[in-house]
Write a structure and sequence with these properties.
Blueprint: E1 21-24, H1 31-39, H2 45-51, E2 67-70
Antiparallel strand pairs: 1-2
Helix pairs in contact: 1-2
């Protein structure tokens, strides 16, 4: 019998979740520009908007310096 024959596979309950990405808004940025950079498609801007609804009232008005969550 091998040394690890009685070890079962599976996910660890203590493993950290994948780190959440963030992006700091720069002058001239828009959600579609950020989405194009992060996802390769400007049309994915709604993903960023939905993840940051607590900060973004109007998706057309984001401010430099804001740190946005990138889902």
């Amino acid at each position: 019998m091998g040394q690890f024959d009685d070890v079962e596979g599976g996910a660890s309950s203590t493993a950290p979740e994948s780190p959440q990405r963030t992006y700091t808004v720069q002058s001239g940025d828009s959600l579609s520009k950020i989405a194009r950079e992060m996802y390769g498609e400007a049309s994915q801007w709604k993903r960023i908007y939905e993840a940051n609804r607590d900060r973004i009232d109007n998706p057309d008005l984001i401010q430099p310096g804001w740190e946005l969550v990138i889902p």
